[in-house]
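yo

u said u wanted the structure for the complex thing, so here. seqs first:
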Amino acid sequence: MTDVRIERLTPAPAYQAVSRTLERLIMSGQLKQGEALPSETELAGRFGVNRSTVREGIRQLEAQGLLRRDGRKRLLVSRPGQAELAPSASRAMLLEQVTFRELWEVALALEPLAAGLAAERHQHELLQRLEANLEETEAAIAAGRSMVALDTEFHSLVAAATLNRALILAREPIGLLLYPACQAIGPQLPQSGSGLVEAHRQVVAAIGRRDRTAATTWMAEHITDLRRAWELARLDPDGSPTAAGQPA
Amino acid sequence: MTDVRIERLTPAPAYQAVSRTLERLIMSGQLKQGEALPSETELAGRFGVNRSTVREGIRQLEAQGLLRRDGRKRLLVSRPGQAELAPSASRAMLLEQVTFRELWEVALALEPLAAGLAAERHQHELLQRLEANLEETEAAIAAGRSMVALDTEFHSLVAAATLNRALILAREPIGLLLYPACQAIGPQLPQSGSGLVEAHRQVVAAIGRRDRTAATTWMAEHITDLRRAWELARLDPDGSPTAAGQPA
DNA sequence: TCTGTCGGACTGTCGGACAAACCCGGCAGC
DNA sequence: GCTGCCGGGTTTGTCCGACAGTCCGACAGA
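structre next:
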């Protein structure tokens, strides 16, 4: 037998042809952001297929965040953002049963970087939101409420302050799994809450005075603490961060 | 007027109900990996909706990589992998016109980490594939061929050798954009190819002798060189890595 | 000017239909 | 007994036609 590469001999289904064609039009810029598409009937006419087929193709792009419906009506082009991608990636990691250690290792690289860049580049509004988050976290601790959501938001805000979209996108799915996992098991460690908020405070302060080094080291310290807390709770670093946030 | 919170009153379309329900079944483990789903007709019967509606729901999950078709026939549950997620993320970054600097900053954090972890944990097979990649790259240089694909693969292999799936997933979309962008402009720098392959060689050697520190520093050096080359080519670090790989 | 009504356009959903591909069991041929 | 061909049932991909609900703009009335 020869080593001839045998192509998968399947005439791609029409609905995939539709979605791929539309995808190319969007990626090539011929369909611009926010622009409205023709109606399904007209698309069907132009593609020369049935409306049902067009709909199936549209569903795929919709699921990928390249298309959106505006209020049950017209279909418009949109770019997939964090809101679309991060949950997908988190889901994939959940299904793969990624371990705490794997998440933590990446976080230890990305979070300090984020804090450092945030210190260099942050804009006023993000700093305000970070400070607001800090206050809410303190209030939550005082009231004994869970601060899972606030902690997760804190790290997202730091990333947002870097203005680095690649970093934001790469970090978000990690945060979505790691922080809920830690905090969900956290209540067993009474003083862990105050340690956490103290670390957050230092990071925000360092970012506020544009001190990259301090922001980096405090964040690294914070992430290291996370692992210490995990081990103190007698949890296996190579175990799965179960019960993590499955966003709807 | 009162401040009563008025919810957006949109009864979710049935096709979304279908996809969300199936998604929950998959995520909760009631539908296991590789398991086959009932036929579309039967699903329609159980959900109490029309087959067309079921199909639209299925298309969404298919686009997210949670379902796959096995040879035109039965539909089976699958977990989305790198092959599904990385292109989506890359597309998103392309649409956002992420700059070279943004990608590079993240790469400078992730790639050395990957190299270091690979040195600690690599298994024999991956090292062999790295060495094969190295040879092919040398051959490509000697023949004057482009080594975009080989360079991209090199970094993917290093990440794979870490056995850290979170890292693999977070890094891949960056690599998919960054390396093609550099190399596509690289030919202007005649000696850059040999510098690149030399760096690769050092990284592979360090991984081979399980020297984490050396692997980390050599990779950091390599990524730094990338930026130097970019600037030598008189390209704006805050420009877009255009002409990058759009994986069809 | 504001309000109520009307017609057109579009989406979401439905039912039915058919060709092609595939799976499976049976049956002849060696 | 094994191989290879054949026919039927199942399932997907695609199409057609239809209808209710909703949205939008136009238009008449107060």
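Strands of chain A lie at 67-69, 75-77. Residues 244-248 of chain A have pLDDT under 50 and may be disordered.
cya
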